[in-house]
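Quick question, first post here. What does this chain look like in 3D?
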Amino acid sequence: MLDLPCVSLFLLFVFPLTEMEMMRAFKFFQRSSFPLRPVPVGIKEILFFKEAPCDIWTYEDDIFKPLFKKEGGIEKRALRKLVENGTYELFIQDNEINLLRKGLRQHLRQMSRTLGIGGAVKNTLRQMSLLSINMGHLYEDPTDDEALNLQYRSARNLINFLSTHKKYVPGLYADLVRQNHHYSVGHPLLSSLILFSFLKYLNHFSEREIELLVLSNYFKDIGMSLIPLEIFNKKDLNQSEKDSIDRHTLHSIDILRGRVPLNSNYLDIIGNHHNHTLIGGEGGVRQRSQGPRSGFLKYGGRSEDIKTILVLIMDIMTAMISPRPYRSAVGLFPTLDRIKYIFAKDFQSEFHHLIYFSQQFLSRVK
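> Answer (accepted):
Ran it through. Tokens below.
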């Protein structure tokens, strides 16, 4: 097989080129000299390291340029300068992606063990960022048992920590919004923070029930990992794409069953969390189909109904008050009006509590 960089140099001598053509040929040579296939990574993934876990490159002016050498120091000022110039992506070699992810998992593991040591708020913010980053990695490979187990344990540690520090939750929610993760991985944690706070506010559930319900909410969308990422950013979906999104609830059950300690009751809540919902879209509403699961709320008992309803409602609320690539955020009162359509008839007391809670919670989100 011909070596493309060598061919490029040979052509420079055989054929006379203009100055612009020579510059393009030189850039092609430099691009071709990148050792292996480049893999993009977010700058926020690199911020957790003091030393580079692998060689890290930038891509400027059609050229890959080395930024940090493996085991060399990470200069935060250099990263800040890149962000100021509008660069949010760096590159590593494809055979070293596991080194980066192994390091990030170790940071998540350590942070989850030490949440209460030192600055509680700062530690929790870092842990939430790591959870969101690693959730993105898990979406790329939901069959990775190590990543799934670490994600479950770390999320559980976060919930237990917040149980004794619930006053921090509105501020943590606001900071997580500012971290600006893609909504496919940011939404599960945002909705879990609101759900956690509302469950605490209602004072109807035990600590164990709250833990399991919030964990169910957090992992309920992992079936989205089987959906092409470009679908999430589309404004108008065809019927096939809508059906694909609706099936994510069943995919989530298939991915989680037997791999995380959630029993069939909580898996059924996950399977029902998109039934009979209206999700905000352009102009306020995007009509969604009923989904492939037959029958709404399998158990029929009010205690199981309310658990599913609460997950469903917080999913809707978080989605509607948050911007999406295909629409702007919807205000709280139009959101509550939409929720009233599916919630207030059978759960009037909880709906009135929701009105008061949501106004109080969001007023503290700064």
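Residues 249 and 271 are 5 Å apart (CA to CA).
Strands lie at 38-42, 56-60, 63-68, 89-93, 278-279, 286-287.
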